[in-house]
Amino acid sequence: MVNKRKGYFMLAVLWLAYVTFAMNWVAGSSLTPQITKTFFSGPVYPVVSELVNYSITTARVFANILAAIILMRLGAKKAVGVGVGLLIMGLIAIWMPNYWAYTIARMVMAIGGSMVIVYMNPVVSRYISDPKEKLKINAANTVSYNIGAFIVAVLFTLFAHQMVTDWRLTLTCFASITLILFLAWVWKAEDFTTADDAGPDGESYGYRDALKDSFLWRYGIAFASFLTLYVLSLVSFKKVFDEYTILNGSITNLLISGFAILGTFAGIYFGNKGLPRKPILFLAGIGMVSSFTFTLIFANSLPILSYIFVSISGFCMFLQYPIFLNLPHELKGMTPK
Fold first, then answer.
1. Which of 39, 105, 222, 302 pairs as cysteine with 99 (C-beta 3.0–4.6 A)?
2. Which parts pass through the membrane (predicted)?
3. How many other CB atoms are there within 10 angstroms of residue 334's CB atom?
4. If 0-12 CB within 10 Å is exposed, 13-18 middle and 19+ buried, where does residue 111 land?
5. What distance in Å separates the CA atoms of residue 202 and residue 21, rounded to the nearest whole number?
6. Which domains can be identified in the chain, with CATH numbers?
7. How far is CA 69 from the centre of its chain?
8. Helix extents (H) in 88-176
């Protein structure tokens, strides 16, 4: 018997865990000048200041494969416990003695964050059966990062001075939430396994099968292309806008994440209309890339126009995100594995 109420609780913990991860990542990125100033006596090369972001992105690539293996071997409760537990490294990283130890601890935090987003799918697959409800919940999961980024953007826009005065205190406030979520998961989560789940023909499906699956290659490349611009726009471009343009990086982050939330609702609407997926993803992708291109073109001449285009880009990003994330669930014979 599937306890749907417990399933909603588990999804809520996963959702909040990923929101917290986003807050830690975006806030840490925004506080990079203050962080490097603490660990180094003088100016540092740009590549050093961006090292944390590069390492987090790299860690997330490997974390996805690691997450699936751990899930199949340990079951949901222990696997998610590992993922949320690794997020606690974001709290430990703050008090590391040097920048390199700080970077490694943040990488471990990123592995935990990537594991959490992977674990949302099998939990949805197990506890939610209605297709329209699945799309809504997957949409909520996709927007979790933006909620975290949006909260941080608002705080850094309205309370800029307070946020940068003591970076350790700021990050500690965000990272401490992870401890509460870890305890909540251990206390109430239900265990289930995906190890015995087979495909529609009764045969098992492993990584060797996945590598031969042409759909997964097309899907993976398309999704990766979307995520590349999404991550760059919220993490790396903030400092680029602040340093090289007349745009305010905090405002661009606020607009991207805010309009992305609106785009998510649009994605739910179009997704539940039963329309073909490929044209929606194709048009949204063109809109996302072209509008961000115009953002860069007008960044030093017409800032208002740039802000409009960056808002459109954020909207188009998340018009496609819930459809992307729900697409595997719409395939015939999908199982949690």
1. 39
2. 52-72, 79-97, 103-122, 143-161, 167-187, 216-237, 249-268, 280-298, 304-327
3. 14
4. buried
5. 37
6. 4-330 (1.20.1250.20)
7. 20
8. 89-93, 99-127, 131-142, 144-158, 160-165, 167-175
